[in-house]
Every structure is written in C-alpha cells, then in structure tokens.
Design the sequence.
C-alpha cells in the first residue's frame, strides 16, 4: 500500500509538470519583498524561431489580496535583437472587480495569479531574439503587494 501511494504521488507530480506544447516562453520575475519600485523594470528575453505563425502574448502577475488597487498600469517595451524598439505601450490590467472587490485571478489563500492578454495573434516580423521589459506605472513608489510579474508567449490557437 505504501508503495502504491508513493507511485501515485509521483505520477501526480509528473502530470503537474507537463508543459503546454503551445507555450514558447514563460518566465516570471520575483519582486523583492513584494514592493515593486518604478526603477525595477524586469526584462524577458525570448526567441521566436517561426515568424510565419501568430502568437498570443500574456502578462502573468501574482499579487497579494491586500494589494490596495483594483487595477495596475504598466508600460511594456518590446525590442528586437539589435535593441531597436518595436513598440511601447501603457496597459491597464484589471486585477479585481471595481464594484465588488473580488479578485479576478486564481487564488490560494491570499495570493492570486493573473494571466492577462497583452496581444492576440501577434506576428513577429522575423525570427530572432526579442526582449520585453515591464515597468509599473502607478502613482505609488514602491507599489506594495506585487509578488511577481512576467510574460507568457504562446502559439495562437484556431
């Protein structure tokens, strides 16, 4: 019985580690002490090998339930491998319902994970290495209760 439980536990762990084949890149940067300073601009370097297909880009964010706002403004900067800026844009992420205060992400305890669409069916001009930098654009510095921030690049579905 003990051996059976051990094997079943191992199978559950392995199944949980299975990666989605559509995910090209996924990375998160931890925010030290849950305080995101304006000067802290996490950057994410990823490679696109097939520029003929569209990609969905997502923000990934983990925040505490005590985060004091319902939204988060951040600016994204996308550059190519030569350092040329392809685009920069200010986006608003809605983390909680503005009326009820209910978190929109998936949570456990007081931590909530949010996956917010940044761009749908985006086509990169050419294969290569790209860098996406994120900068918080709120009026509070440091911004409290943000645990981590990141991106996910995924092949677009039909």
Sequence:
């Amino acid at each position: 019985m003990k051996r059976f439980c051990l094997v079943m536990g191992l199978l559950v762990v392995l199944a949980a580690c299975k990666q989605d084949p559509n995910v090209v890149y996924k990375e998160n940067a931890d925010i030290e002490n849950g305080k995101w300073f304006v000067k802290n601009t996490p950057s994410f370097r990823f490679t696109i090998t097939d520029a003929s297909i569209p990609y969905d880009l997502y923000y990934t964010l983990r925040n505490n339930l005590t985060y004091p706002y319902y939204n988060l403004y951040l600016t994204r900067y996308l550059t190519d491998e030569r350092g040329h800026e392809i685009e920069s844009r200010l986006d608003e992420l809605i983390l909680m319902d503005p009326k009820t205060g209910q978190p929109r992400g998936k949570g456990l305890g007081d931590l909530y994970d949010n996956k917010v669409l940044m761009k749908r069916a985006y086509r990169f001009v050419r294969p290569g290495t790209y860098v996406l930098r994120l900068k918080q654009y709120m009026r509070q510095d440091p911004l409290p209760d943000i645990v981590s921030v990141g991106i996910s690049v995924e092949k677009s579905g039909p």
Helices lie at 2-17. Confidence is low (pLDDT under 50) at residues 4-15. Residues 78 and 87 are 5 Å apart (CA to CA).
